[in-house]
């Protein structure tokens, strides 16, 4: 399955439903609660970000936000029914292609300290832990930042 950029007109409500459904497992596990509660279909259509998906209706997605030092990956979600099929890897590879096109040297993302399984997945995908941050009002770290350099040459494919 090939990633595509979500552009108007698009079923933003379906995409929001995917994200909310796949982030629901964090309820009660993370503190403070996820920012997914503030996400709306309208905010996903923001022209300052790129939203990419796989499948019709969306089975996987990622929100890309260019920053000065890296391309930030947010709200990476894969439908439970389609996990372990390489969809997250395909979206991260796409993010690397976009970062290269934008002249950005790295990919960056954050995950909550409580989500150990996510830490393992991102490390397996070539990301390294680069720091911790705390949400406002918290004295302890609440998120871990992961970063992966963008390869200057895309990997060769043998087909």
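^ Assign residues to that structure.
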């Amino acid at each position: 399955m090939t990633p595509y950029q979500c552009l108007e007109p698009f079923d933003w409500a379906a995409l929001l439903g995917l994200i909310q459904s796949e982030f629901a497992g964090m309820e009660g596990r993370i503190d403070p609660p996820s920012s997914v509660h503030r996400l709306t279909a309208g905010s996903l259509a923001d022209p300052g970000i790129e939203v990419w998906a796989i499948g019709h209706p969306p089975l996987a997605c990622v929100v890309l936000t260019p920053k000065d030092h890296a391309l930030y990956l947010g709200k990476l979600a894969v439908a439970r029914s389609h996990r372990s099929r390489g969809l997250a890897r395909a979206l991260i590879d796409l993010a690397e292609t976009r970062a290269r096109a934008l002249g950005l040297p790295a990919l960056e993302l954050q995950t909550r300290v409580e989500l150990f399984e996510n830490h393992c997945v991102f490390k397996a995908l070539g990301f390294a832990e680069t720091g911790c941050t705390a949400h406002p009002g918290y004295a302890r770290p609440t998120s871990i930042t992961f970063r992966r350099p963008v390869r200057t040459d895309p990997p060769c494919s043998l087909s």
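The longest strand covers residues 71-78.
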